[in-house]
Amino acid sequence: MRARLSRADQTGIAVVVAVSALAIAFRQLTIVPRAFVAICARPHPPLICAPRQAVLWAQYEGWFGIAALGLGLLAFALARRSLGVAALAVGIAAVVNYNGTEGIIGAAFGLWGWLEAAAPARDSAATGSDHARQ
Known about the structure:
The protein has seven helices and no strands. By secondary structure, the protein is mainly alpha-helical.
């Protein structure tokens, strides 16, 4: 059996890769350098300090992980491709921003929901199951 990627799956992979790359790049360019601590502590900091502060606040409060876990559980429960893509993308961003426990669990549930949504529907007559008829 050979896996086939639909156009929606290819788009989902592209979205996950793009969000992951942006999260890593933002962290490496604005949060990791120690110079930004001094720059953002000034009385009138540059505009880049506002999203930097928002990301740090969300990281400290665990919002990246909570969002990934919530999206992942929804993707798992509803088997929706879009929710799976969102959970995987936010889950990777959560891991990048040190919300790894909830982030990786949310990403795993999101991937599971995405794969479930992408799987072909099984015919109950072919499997011999009576559950679908009831």
